[in-house]
Specification:
Blueprint: H1 4-28, E1 44-50, E2 58-65, E3 71-74, E4 86-89, H2 94-128
Antiparallel strand pairs: 1-2, 3-4
């Protein structure tokens, strides 16, 4: 019970790190081209849940996946273009992903600040006992 702040903030760090990983993967693949007979790159979204009374904090419950259909784009000169000149791109909204990136980064920073402040408070409490 004494170190609950560290444990709970640590779960927040973990959730936000996994969210950052998913967003960076989505951003890295925003221009991934596939042939029309293949599925598009599917964006990954982290599903977070609140822990219970016995297990406080936040946890990753799994992932949700974006649309495998993607969007068809007319690029007749592309090597993967079909007979009609289309290729398949992922259906990823760059501005939405940048918003997610900022939120995940700020959440990670907030959790890291809690860890730092809790550590400082615990160190001060140990100094009182000396």
């Amino acid at each position: 019970m004494t170190f609950d702040a560290l444990g709970i903030a640590g779960t927040g760090l973990n959730v936000h790190r996994k969210w950052l990983d998913a967003v960076s993967d989505n951003l890295a693949n925003v221009n991934t081209v596939r042939a029309t007979d293949d599925v598009a790159f599917q964006a990954r979204y982290v599903l977070a849940v609140e822990g219970g009374d016995d297990n406080p904090g936040a946890y990753v419950a799994g992932a949700a996946w974006g649309d495998a259909e993607g969007r068809l784009t007319y690029e007749p000169d592309h090597p993967l273009a079909d007979d009609e000149g289309y290729v398949r791109y992922p259906d990823i909204d760059l501005s939405e992903q940048m918003g997610h990136l900022i939120m995940a980064q700020r959440g990670y920073q907030a959790s890291a600040a809690v860890v730092d402040r809790a550590k400082t408070a615990y160190e001060a409490a140990l100094q009182i006992g000396k």
